[in-house]
């Protein structure tokens, strides 16, 4: 990878308002370079100076601050420009494989835009197509304009906050100094009384000793509780109440004051909210186009057409990279996942687009989230991804992603007892997606089969199968994928197959015992005749999967509270 500031016959711009090395400034501090470029181009429409741009509050790591939010928007806009300009392979190589490389190429795109304004043409290897005239740069200018309109007020608030902190700090030092002075006077009076009792002439002190405020600031006094309420700014106490003052409590007061004044009053941008709304509008249009395409073609032509590319009358959404950036924000995360799920429901081509734009690292990190509100939709998204690209299985297993789906199945068993409702339908749908994902993970993967066996997946599935059928399609899909997952779980895995057959024998013996109790026949003799065969006989009889009758699927498994292995 190589970046050059100019072509062979060009020189760097020498504008005194620009940094001495404009190209390096764009590559290392893109937000400051973009702010400076906007102010230079708009000298009469803004009250912001170049020096004020250097004082924009916040940092890159804090997305709720002005600086962090601008950097977040800059990332989304440059990714969108690259997504719409580069080929899918080049975009994935330059903007998704390595974080540092992606950041450098984003900053290079900004440098290309700024330096072309001054007649200079930066170069890169691999080369990028021209992006300096893309209309989305106007969106970045708009966001910078809206941010800088607040900058004078934010800087004034910041200055007032610093003054309040300094005033509070000085008041605290003075208060402690007065406490020390009063203590010194009390010690002098006590010493004078003692000397008078001993008949010694007391020394006439002219006054309390002078206190070094810096040293007094480190003085600590044992805290006293049960005193009166604080008063004044930031919990600073009255100077008259000596007994209720102590440095420990005063420190807490200053900290609370600082936390309160850290709120800058910054009005956040609506850029990402607008992007989500635009994406939702596109989804409504896309659903109409796909439905019309399906109705105009035969059933044999639809899978081939929609598996690799969208319908001819439908273009890829421009908002897709911005929607991925929204996943980083907890405020919009649930809405973004719902829209992405709706997008991937359009067909395998939509899933491939989502994978091409780089959705995998985002949703992979979300598996470690403990937020309950995104659990269902995240499982549905993962089911779509795994169904189209099975190669994601290895990456999912590296992060122990299997436990996420098992945990959902374990935590929602009680929902099988509930009457039919939208919540129960959703639970059955998500449980079916979890079983579907586990079935694909267990395919030709003995290590995953063993892990599912150890995580008691077999026990959870048998509980689901024994619950009454509520007559909904969602419950039918759930049972179907549970049986499919069981088939993959015990394929070539003797321990799971042995346990399943043991469950079946227990069910048969239990059913016979109930029948005999109803008929009043001898139970013990029949129970002895129903003794279980040896483990070798079980494996021999279950070697052929056709021996398991489909109508006995519900009787094949019963709930067991423990795992056993054959001796």
What can you tell me about this protein's structure?
The chain is mainly α. The chain is 62% helix and 1% strand. The chain is built from 26 helices and two strands. It has helices spanning 22-28, 30-41, 50-53, 66-85, 88-95, 99-117, 136-197, 213-216, 247-261, 271-296, 301-306, 320-326, 333-344, 348-357, 360-366, 375-388, 392-398, 402-411, 422-442, 446-454, 457-466, 473-489, 494-519, 523-529, 535-541, 553-556, and strands at residues 2-4, 123-125. A two-stranded antiparallel sheet has the order 1-2. The longest helix has 62 residues, at 136-197. It starts with a strand and ends in an 11-residue tail after the last helix. 28% of the residues are buried.
Rg from Cα: 36 Å
List the total number of helices.
Answer: 26
Strand residue content: under 5%
Tally of extended strands? 2
Query: What percentage of residues falls in helices of 4 or more residues?
Result: 55-70%
| Sheet with most strands: strand arrangement | 1-2
Q: Which segments are poorly predicted (pLDDT under 50) over 5 or more consecutive residues?
A: 202-262, 522-567
What secondary-structure arrangement, pairings included, does this model have?
Layout: E1 2-4, H1 22-28, H2 30-41, H3 50-53, H4 66-85, H5 88-95, H6 99-117, E2 123-125, H7 136-197, H8 213-216, H9 247-261, H10 271-296, H11 301-306, H12 320-326, H13 333-344, H14 348-357, H15 360-366, H16 375-388, H17 392-398, H18 402-411, H19 422-442, H20 446-454, H21 457-466, H22 473-489, H23 494-519, H24 523-529, H25 535-541, H26 553-556
Antiparallel strand pairs: 1-2
Helix pairs in contact: 1-2, 1-6, 4-6, 4-7, 4-12, 7-9, 10-12, 10-13, 13-16, 16-19, 18-19, 19-22, 21-22
């Amino acid at each position: 990878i190589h970046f050059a500031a100019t072509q062979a016959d060009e020189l760097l711009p020498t504008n005194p308002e620009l940094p001495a090395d404009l190209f390096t400034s764009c590559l290392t501090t893109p937000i400051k370079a973009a702010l400076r470029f906007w102010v230079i181009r708009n000298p009469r429409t803004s009250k912001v100076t170049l020096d004020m741009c250097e004082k924009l509050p916040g940092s890159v790591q804090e997305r709720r601050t002005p600086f962090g939010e601008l950097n977040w928007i800059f990332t989304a806009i440059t990714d969108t420009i690259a997504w719409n300009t580069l080929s899918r392979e080049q975009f994935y190589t330059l903007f998704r494989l390595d974080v540092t490389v992606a950041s450098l190429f984003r900053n290079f795109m900004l440098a290309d835009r700024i330096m072309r304004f001054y007649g200079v043409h930066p170069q890169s290897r691999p080369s990028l197509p021209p992006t300096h005239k893309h209309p989305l740069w106007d969106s970045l200018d708009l966001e910078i304009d809206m941010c800088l309109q607040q900058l004078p007020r934010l800087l004034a608030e910041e200055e007032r906050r610093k003054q309040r902190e300094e005033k509070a700090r000085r008041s605290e030092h003075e208060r402690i100094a007065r406490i020390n002075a009063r203590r010194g006077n009390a010690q002098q009076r006590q010493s004078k009384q003692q000397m008078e009792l001993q008949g010694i002439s007391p020394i006439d002190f002219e006054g309390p000793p002078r206190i070094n405020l810096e040293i007094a600031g480190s003085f600590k006094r044992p805290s006293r509780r049960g005193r009166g309420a604080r008063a004044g700014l930031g919990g600073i106490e009255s100077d008259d109440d000596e007994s209720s003052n102590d440095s420990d409590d005063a420190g807490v007061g200053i900290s609370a004051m600082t936390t309160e004044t850290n709120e800058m009053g910054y009005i956040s941008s609506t850029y990402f909210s607008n992007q989500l709304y635009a994406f939702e509008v596109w989804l409504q249009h896309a659903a109409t186009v796909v439905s019309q395409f399906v109705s105009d073609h035969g059933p044999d032509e639809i899978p081939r057409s929609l598996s690799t590319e969208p319908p001819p009358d439908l273009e890829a959404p421009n908002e897709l990279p911005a929607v991925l950036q929204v996943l980083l924000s907890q405020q919009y995360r649930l809405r973004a996942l719902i829209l992405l799920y709706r997008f991937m429901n359009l067909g395998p081509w939509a899933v491939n687009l989502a994978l091409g734009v780089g959705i995998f690292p985002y949703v992979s990190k979300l598996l470690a989230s403990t937020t309950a509100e995104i659990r269902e939709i995240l499982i549905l998204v993962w089911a779509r991804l795994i169904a189209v690209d099975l190669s994601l299985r290895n990456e999912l297993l590296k992060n122990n992603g299997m436990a996420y789906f098992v945990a959902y199945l374990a935590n929602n068993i009680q929902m099988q007892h509930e009457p039919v409702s939208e919540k129960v339908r959703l639970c059955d749908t998500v449980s079916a997606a979890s079983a579907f994902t586990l079935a694909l993970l267990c395919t030709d993967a003995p290590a995953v089969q063993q892990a599912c066996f150890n995580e008691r997946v077999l026990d959870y599935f048998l509980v689901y199968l024994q619950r009454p059928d509520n007559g909904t399609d969602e419950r039918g899909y759930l049972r179907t994928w549970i049986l499919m997952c069981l088939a993959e779980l015990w394929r070539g895995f003797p321990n799971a197959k042995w346990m399943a057959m043991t469950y079946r024998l227990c069910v048969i013996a239990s059913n016979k015992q109930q029948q005999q109790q109803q008929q009043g026949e001898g139970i013990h003799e029949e129970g002895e005749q129903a003794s279980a065969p040896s483990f070798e006989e079980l494996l021999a009889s279950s070697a052929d999967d056709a021996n398991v009758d489909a109508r006995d699927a519900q009787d094949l498994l019963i709930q067991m509270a423990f795992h056993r292995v054959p001796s």
